[in-house]
Design goal:
- With 139 residues, this protein is α/β, with parallel strands linked by helices.
- The chain has a domain of 96 residues: Nucleoside Triphosphate Pyrophosphohydrolase.
- It is built from three helices and seven strands; from the N terminus they run βββαββαβαβ.
- Strands 1, 2, 3, 4, 5, 6 and 7 form a seven-stranded mixed beta sheet that branches.
- The longest helix has 13 residues.
Length: 139
C-alpha cells in the first residue's frame, strides 16, 4: 500500500534511513498488509504510523496499481491510494518513525528529487497521468 498525500500540486515524501533497503532515497509513505488486514485498514494504519496523519477510512481513493521489479529482480504489486491533505482534518504530518526515516518533505509532483526510489516515481507518474496500471523496473 502506498499513499499519495497531496497538497495542491505537492506530494509528501519520506527520506529512508537506517532500514538497510533504499536508504538515502525518497519514497511515499507505504507498507505491507498485516495478517487479517484489508487494503484500506493498512493504508490508514501505515499513514498514522509513518507520518502521524489520521485518515478516515472513507478518504483513501485507489488511483493506480504499480507492478514494480527492483534491481535484484524481486517484484511486488502496489496499490496506490490518494488523499487530499487537509491540515485541520488530518493534523500536520510528522516524521513518526525517525529510526526508519531521516525527514519528510513536500515536493512538487512534477519535480521529484533525483534520488526518488523508482517505485515511488512510477506511482507518482501513474497518478499524474491518471493511468490505472503501470509497470516499473521491467524491460
Amino acid at each position: 500500500m502506498l499513499l499519495l498525500l497531496t497538497h495542491a500540486d505537492y506530494i509528501l515524501l519520506a527520506l529512508r534511513e537506517g532500514t538497510g533497503y533504499a536508504d538515502g532515497q525518497w519514497n511515499l509513505p507505504s507498507g505491507k498488509l498485516e495478517h487479517g488486514e484489508h487494503a484500506i485498514t493498512a493504508i490508514v494504519r501505515e499513514t498514522r504510523e509513518e507520518i502521524g496523519v489520521c485518515l478516515d477510512p472513507s478518504e483513501p481513493l485507489m488511483v493506480t496499481t504499480v507492478h514494480h521489479r527492483n534491481s535484484g529482480g524481486l517484484a511486488r504489486i502496489g496499490l496506490a491510494f490518494a488523499v487530499a491533505f487537509d491540515p485541520i482534518l488530518h493534523g500536520e504530518p510528522v516524521n513518526a518513525e525517525p529510526h526508519k526515516c531521516a525527514q519528510i518533505e513536500w515536493f512538487p509532483a512534477d519535480l521529484l528529487p533525483s534520488n526518488t526510489y523508482p517505485y515511488t516515481a512510477a506511482c507518482v507518474r501513474a497518478f499524474r497521468d491518471r493511468a490505472p496500471f503501470a509497470l516499473s523496473g521491467w524491460s
